[in-house]
TrEMBL record:
Record-linked SUPFAM superfamilies: NfeD domain-like (SSF141322)
InterPro entries associated with the record: Membrane_assoc_protease, NA-bd_OB-fold, NfeD-like_C
Keyword Hydrolase: yes
Organism the protein comes from: Proteus hauseri ATCC 700826
Subcellular location: Membrane
Transmembrane feature ranges: 6-24, 31-50, 56-76
Membrane topology: Multi-pass membrane protein
UniProt keyword annotations, A-Z: Hydrolase, Membrane, Protease, Transmembrane, Transmembrane helix
Main location: membrane
This protein's name: Membrane protease activity regulator
GO molecular function, one term: peptidase activity
Amino acid sequence: MMIELISAQSALFWLGLGGLLLIAEMLGTAGYLLWSGIAALCVSLLAWILPIGWPIQGILFALLTVISAILWRIWLKQRKLSKEAENLNQKSHQLMGVKAVLLSDTESGFSRVKLADGSWRVYSDTPLHAGDKVEVVTIDGITLHVIAITSAGGNTQKDD
């Protein structure tokens, strides 16, 4: 009885399968079922409009799944993430190039700077003094590597 109903209403079968695959995708399969779900919905539309048999519908479903997955893969490779998007949740990487003032003299190369509402540990290869202006050049874990910002004459600028 159920088989005859499904055979008579193939568009509803593909619509239901597509819906189930998309629901399963929302549960967290990271894109694996998205393209199969969309392919099933496309086959549902074609089966509703055109009188095509089950074998052709199955082939269409398989082809549309593979083609859509390949096109998605190509699109992802061509898409370039912006620098901001790459560092969206990495606060320390957003600090590259930021200028700040040292809070204390460096001891064994280490000191601190205040950035926004926090204090960051910094490291410099050269001895620096409190009040020296520095620029963040690299990040190592939670330590910012800085260099002194110098004036045109080559002297380190200081806030007096």
